[in-house]
TrEMBL record, chain A:
This protein's encoding gene: msrQ
Annotated source species: Tepidimonas ignava
Keyword annotations from UniProtKB, A to Z: Cell membrane, Electron transport, Flavoprotein, FMN, Heme, Iron, Membrane, Metal-binding, Transmembrane, Transmembrane helix, Transport
Membrane-spanning ranges: 47-65, 77-95, 115-134, 146-163, 175-191
Cellular localisation: Cell membrane; Membrane
Entry keyword Metal-binding: yes
Names of the cofactor(s): heme b; FMN
Biological process annotations from GO: protein repair
Entry membrane topology: Multi-pass membrane protein
Family named by the database record: Belongs to the MsrQ family.
Function: Part of the MsrPQ system that repairs oxidized periplasmic proteins containing methionine sulfoxide residues (Met-O), using respiratory chain electrons. Thus protects these proteins from oxidative-stress damage caused by reactive species of oxygen and chlorine generated by the host defense mechanisms. MsrPQ is essential for the maintenance of envelope integrity under bleach stress, rescuing a wide series of structurally unrelated periplasmic proteins from methionine oxidation.
The name this protein goes by in its record: Protein-methionine-sulfoxide reductase heme-binding subunit MsrQ
TrEMBL record, chain B:
Protein name: Protein-methionine-sulfoxide reductase catalytic subunit MsrP
Biological source species: Tepidimonas ignava
Part of the whole protein covered: 50 to 317 of 317
Subunit note: Heterodimer of a catalytic subunit (MsrP) and a heme-binding subunit (MsrQ).
Gene Ontology biological process: protein repair
Residues the record lists as binding Mo-molybdopterin: 27, 30-31, 85, 120, 168, 173, 184-186
Membership in a protein family: Belongs to the MsrP family.
Gene designation: msrP
Signal peptide range: none
Its EC number(s): 1.8.5.-
């Protein structure tokens, strides 16, 4: 299985590009419905969110299944999420704010919903910037890992941004779905971190160490 | 649906009408679902005949009008109005109908009537959106009496020279061109005259976001987006420039006096 997953990696990477290519193609051909700008901005945002959730799914899935080659997918998924988030921000700035930087800044200042989304994107920038192999050595593994824990804050901000966007029209269905999925992903990490901490300190609990699992 | 061009000042904007496909294909009509495409797909199930409108509340004598009564109540006019949605998009729509004041005269409201309520159809058998708790059903909208009596407030029976398509609020709806679109109730089955400000659908659902008045105003932002500009649908696709939104949707000259002395930020 791990061999299959490794071989599939470039295809997964390519597949991540498809929704965006499709959205842009429809948008440029004026086939995105009556309000193409809004459909494009929202579509890009949806995919940024989905890919971020998939990125966060990699580690739990790896532990559940033992398919450790999945780890090789994580960076690509994360970078694609960032790529969609960046297009989402640019499309908003261009199509909603006419490319006017001062209008964007004013909008960020006036509307918490926009500010939360913008902060989430800004927090992704250092993560994307330190996603190359050498960055881990330069920063040191501990510091790199600490920095990349920002992704949890980003996910919560993204969920808030999404929920806020839906709140005015009270469309909560998919907010619940994404919220429940994120809760599971974060809960798994808490449980996992807790059981690892116990495994590392056998003397304190007086129990034999259970087999450490990654 | 034969109609004469309206002679009322402000009733015929020279702007290019939005293509029929967009006017009838991109609608907010939550009784049929929350996606803009749902109404065009599903509203055809609505049973339009027979159709009656119950008129009651603070009136001399409650009455019920059927479609033929409503069709003949006053001469039909064509009016070309801008429609500004609270979501930040706009259209230009050639409506067919007559001023709501004709219906009000027929209803003979009492002096104590200060507001008028419009109730939309809420039929569980044909409206799948009613299963969702997004809004309280039936959809209720309302106007102050002077707003309702303003000649620009239209009772629309058609658009583009034909009967209203179901997704646009057949067989009859209100159109209040200086207010955000959600104020213009669709598929009306009841008109009720009251002495207190009505509890209206969006105002009840999210009072800090949707006020009772909901006058188009570029200076009063929605909590989550600016209302300073709007996207005119059907013009230029993706790169269509946003237009500057006008106070009272450009009808300030006709309706501004209704709100003289009112703080429009407070009464949004």
């Amino acid at each position: 299985m791990n061999r299959v997953l490794r071989a599939a990696k470039p295809w997964v990477w390519l597949a991540c590009a498809l929704p965006g290519a499709w959205l842009w193609a429809l948008a440029l051909a004026d086939r995105l419905g009556a309000n193409p700008a809004e459909a494009l901005i929202r579509g890009l945002g949806d995919w940024a969110l989905r890919l971020l959730w998939l990125t966060l799914l990699v580690t739990p899935l790896r532990h559940w299944t033992g398919w450790h080659a999945l780890a090789g997918w994580r960076r690509g998924l994360g970078l694609w999420s960032f790529a969609y988030a960046t297009q989402h921000v640019l499309a908003y700035a261009w199509l909603d704010q006419a490319g006017d930087v001062s209008a964007v800044l004013a909008d960020v200042g006036q509307r918490p919903f926009i500010a939360v989304g913008m902060v989430a994107w800004l927090l992704l920038v250092p993560l994307a910037a330190t996603s190359w192999d050498g960055a881990v050595q330069r920063l040191g593994a501990g510091r790199w890992r600490a920095l990349h824990r920002l992704v949890y804050a980003v996910a919560l901000l993204v969920l808030l941004h999404f929920a806020w966007m839906r709140s005015g029209k009270r469309l909560w269905d998919d907010v619940w779905v994404y919220g429940a999925a994120l809760a599971l992903l974060l809960l798994w990490r808490l449980v996992h971190a807790f059981s690892r901490a116990r495994a590392r300190a056998p003397a304190a609990t007086g129990r034999p160490p259970s087999r450490a699992r990654g | 649906l034969p109609a004469q061009p309206s002679a009322l000042p402000g009733a015929r904007t020279p702007e290019a009408p939005t293509p029929y496909e967009l006017v009838t294909g991109y609608n907010n009509f939550y009784e049929f679902g929350t996606d803009k495409e749902d109404p065009a797909r599903l509203a055809g199930r609505m049973k339009l005949r027979p159709w009656t409108v119950q008129i009651d509340g603070l009136v001399a004598k409650p009455l019920t009008l059927d479609w033929d009564d409503l069709r003949r109540l006053a001469p039909l006019e064509e009016r070309i109005y801008r429609l500004r949605c609270v979501e930040g998009w706009s259209m230009v729509i050639p409506w067919v109908g007559y001023s709501l004041q004709h219906l009000i005269e027929r209803a003979q409201p009492l002096g104590s009537a200060r507001y008028v309520e419009f109730h939309s159809l809420a039929d569980r058998d044909t409206m799948p959106g009613l299963r969702s708790s997004v809004l309280l059903w039936p959809y209720v909208e309302g106007l102050r009496m002077d707003e309702a009596r303003h000649p620009l407030t239209l009772l629309a029976l058609g658009l583009y020279g034909e009967l209203l398509p179901p997704q646009n609020g057949a067989p009859l709806r209100v159109v209040v061109p200086w207010k955000y679109g959600f104020k213009s109730a669709k598929s009306i089955v009841r008109v009720r005259f009251v002495d207190k400000q009505p509890a209206t659908a969006w105002n009840v659902a999210a009072p800090h976001e949707y006020g009772f008045y909901a006058n188009v105003n570029p200076d009063v932002p929605h909590p989550r987006w600016s209302q300073a500009t709007e996207r005119r649908l059907g013009q230029g696709g993706l790169w269509a420039p946003r237009l500057k939104t006008q106070l009272f949707n450009g009808y300030a000259e006709q309706v501004g006096q209704l709100y003289a002395g009112m703080d429009l930020r407070r009464w949004y």
